[in-house]
Amino acid sequence: MEDWYDAEQLAQAWGMHVRTIRRYIREGKLQASKIGGTWRIAKEDAEVFVGRISKDIKKKTDDDIQSFIDEGKDKDGVTFEVCAVVEYPMGSKEAQLLSQHLVSIMNSDDPARGPAKMQFQNFPDEHKCRFVIWGKAAFVGKLLTTVAEHTE
């Protein structure tokens, strides 16, 4: 890999929109330098940013899981019937495709869904991903079936 990336390269690599990367730069969350009209991000700064984001997501996920265990509710007071944690070995591209598929199901107009949410974490260094899914038992089952079909 190069020592520097532009915003478009990081957006593509991380599966984000380039405007999101630029917003992170503007908000000071991602260190960057403007060189010749193009934002450049040092490899080390990109790695620090990804590490920080991963830790933040892990803490939020852990907090949400503990809240569910304690009360069956998320931090906003929404009650869920089931919480499932799925950790599966797969590469980043495969994990991204699966997460996109699950998001499309989450966003579908399914009357059986009810209140539901999903969190996704990718651990490329460990070659695995984690999905945490909350919702009604039947809907969570549908998502788990999708994961099973995708990973077979």
Briefly summarize what is shown.
The chain has 152 residues and is an alpha+beta fold.
Written overview of the protein:
The protein has 152 residues and is of the alpha+beta class. Helix content is 51%, strand content 22%. It contains 5 helices and 6 strands, in the order E-H-H-E-E-H-E-H-E-E-H. A 3-stranded antiparallel β-sheet has the order 1-3-2. Helix 1 (7-14) crosses helix 2 and helix 4 packs antiparallel against helix 5. It is elongated, with a radius of gyration of 18 Å. The model has no long low-confidence stretch (mean pLDDT 81).
Question: Layout of SSEs?
Answer:
Layout: E1 4-6, H1 7-14, H2 18-26, E2 33-35, E3 38-42, H3 43-71, E4 82-89, H4 92-107, E5 117-123, E6 128-135, H5 137-151
Antiparallel strand pairs: 1-3, 2-3, 4-6, 5-6
| Tally of strands | 6
Compressed to H and E, one letter per element, the order equals: EHHEEHEHEEH
The shape is elongated
Q: pLDDT below 50 for ≥5 consecutive residues: which ranges?
A: none
Strand content: 15-25%
Average pLDDT: 81
The amount of helix comes to: 40-55%
Based on secondary structure, the structural category is alpha+beta
Strand count, sense and barrel status of the largest sheet are: 3 strands, antiparallel
Strand arrangement, major sheet: 1-3-2
Tell me the Rg in angstroms.
Answer: 18 Å
> Number of helix segments?
5
How far apart, in Å, are the first and last alpha carbons? 31 Å
Keyphrases for this structure?
three-stranded antiparallel sheet; alpha+beta; 22% strand; 152 residues; elongated
